[in-house]
Amino acid sequence: MKKLIKDIVLMVVISCVSLSCSQNKSLQELLQEEKKAIDRFINMNDLVILKKYPENGVFKEKEYFRTSDGLFINVVDSGNGTRVQMLNDVSVRYESMQYIKDVAKGYSTSYIAPPYPFSFVYGIPQTYSSASTPVCQAWVIPLSFVGEEAVLNLIIPSSLGSYTNNSDITPVFYKNLRYTRFN
Questions:
Q1: May I ask the CATH class of domain 27-182?
Q2: Could you give the angle at the alpha carbon of 164 between the alpha carbons of 98 and 124, nearest 5°?
Q3: Strands 72-77 and 89-93
Q4: What does each of the 183 residues of the chain score in pLDDT, given as a tens digit?
Q5: Are 84 and 141 within 8 A, CB to CB?
Q6: Does this model's pTM top 0.90?
Q7: Secondary structure (DSSP) of 53-118
């Protein structure tokens, strides 16, 4: 009887361990899922991916430039011409954001931005990420192309995303992200 109980307990433990192991995805699998989700998002929205940033800086509505880092940028308005300088405090607002994996699965939930801006200090990478805000490296990259008051749409892979997006391999779409102030 004791042997039978031991065998049953052993089988339950082995089953639980094998089930939990098979449900955990490798980093490679998660990154593949992310790539597929971004590709599907691009296809679902009929986006055109440009190999070069337009010389005149003008984008059509569905044109996105892919940077070497994997960030997809669509410039709605290139701004007022004022360029960011080292150690400028940059304020950012956005209209809404979506988790691309959710959109690729057919969910269309958009999250409206809070009424206050987010900020970081240009040239100080430690300010580009925080566990409590969506500030991320991807918000810094476009500043080499656009100026203050620029408005962008961004498709951000997790590697360039916020602390939360990066930790769980979640790509994000930001609609009408605006650089509201450099000072």
A1: alpha beta
A2: 105
A3: unpaired
A4: 444 444 444 444 444 444 444 468 898 999 999 999 999 999 999 999 999 999 999 999 999 999 999 999 999 999 999 999 999 999 999 999 999 999 888 887 889 989 999 999 999 999 998 888 899 999 999 999 999 999 999 999 999 998 766 667 899 999 999 999 999
A5: no
A6: no
A7: --TT----TTEEEEPTTS-EEEEEE--SSPPP-TT-EEEEE-SEEEEHHHHHTT----EEPPSS-E
The residue behind tokens 């590697």 is 159
3-state secondary structure of 131: coil
**Chain CA centroid to CA 157, Å:** 4
Q: Which amino acid, residue 123?
A: G
- CA-based R_g, the chain, Å: 21
Contact between 168 and 87 (Cβ < 8 Å) = no
CA-to-CA distance for 143 and 139, rounded, in angstroms? 8
Q: Tally the residues of the chain.
A: 183
In the block, residue with structure tokens 């805000």? 133
